[in-house]
Predict the 3D structure of the following.
Amino acid sequence: MTILAVIVLVLMVLCGAPLFTVILAGAIFGYLASDFGLSVIAMEVFRLTNTPLLVALPLFTFTGYMLAASESTQRLLLLIRALFGWMPGGMAIVGFFLCAIFTALTGASGVTIVALGAILFPILVKAGYSEKFSLGHITTSGSLGLLLVPSIPLILYGVIAQQMNIGDEFTVEELFIAGLVPFMLMVLALSLWTVFRHREVPTTRFSFADLRHAVKMCRWELPLPLVIFGGIFAGFISISEIAAITALYVLIIDVFVYKEVKFNKLPGIIQESMIMVGSIILILGSSLALTNYFVDIEIAQKLFSFINQHISNPLVFLMLLNIFLLLVGALLDIFSAIVILVPLLLPVAVGYGIHPVHLGIILIANLQIGYFTPPVGMNLFIASYRFNKSILDLYVATIPFMLILLAVLVLITYIPFLSTWYQHL
């Protein structure tokens, strides 16, 4: 690729060109400079459209948008409050799980802050938690669910990694299973700190009547986790089939049972969700074309050779990888970061003996923390706008949460068993 092409790409970025156009232009310049036919790009996009796993992406995205348009979050909050409200720190723990579930379903951390912030923030303050804690809680919890099924970033990582066919083979179902323990460790660490920090916060009295009422209110949402987790762990239906069943089920209960989503709103919801999917697929198709060019010129092997000359210890590589990913997570949205980094990092990581599933969990865990990493983490600015607080207030509020999650990240990084435990069963 010539210096002129690099200058053009930099100018495109500075002028605010869409990400997929920059990536696609890079692939075009590269193939032209290498005397390859541009038909390779079309072949890569076509290969992507023939990936059965890609069907799950629009279906899960549509499911998340449908749930956001209904009152499911209020009903789930009622249920989790009835289950955990009696515990010390119970309301905060409720918030951790609710935000995580909502983010996992929508795949959008910022949407969780905007959609649930108005509900959770006054509840936490009224329950006795400080305003600073409540701000930090909502800002950081917005990205917790990115390791939880049916996380779209995990699906995206799986699609790209499988297309590259490097290292041990794995399925997206294995990625979802691998994310469970790291996710639970993060929630457990945050919960223990919350209980210790807010021992004086009053709790609610446990009531079977309240629990029964909450279960009755959520009776149509309760089968969802059973369908998703049961299908994945049982292994008798594919992730695409699970996504189709989930989308159809949510459509039926929101439109015909609860009647909270009117027919005239459906086209708008479909349009919004498919715009999100379309943007992801455009970036993904362009990225695969660029990835193919990188493979042809052996950039991954050259990168691994360069790094290996200076870093021989895999543990040092993992430490530097975490620092790099945290910075990237603060600067780029998670979808862009995944499609740009996976083709470069996966061959290098496999060269150091890191399992692709383990790398996927490390990658997503870092990027979700990067969302609220100062000074430019995306969640910080979204929360600042949503709650009308200065960005400095958000820095101070999120630092304790960030330190706790960084400690868990170290465990996830250096104890591969936490991600690959299912392989030893």
The two ends are 48 Å apart (CA to CA). Residues 266-296 form the longest helix (31 residues). The CA atoms of residues 322 and 341 lie 13 Å apart.
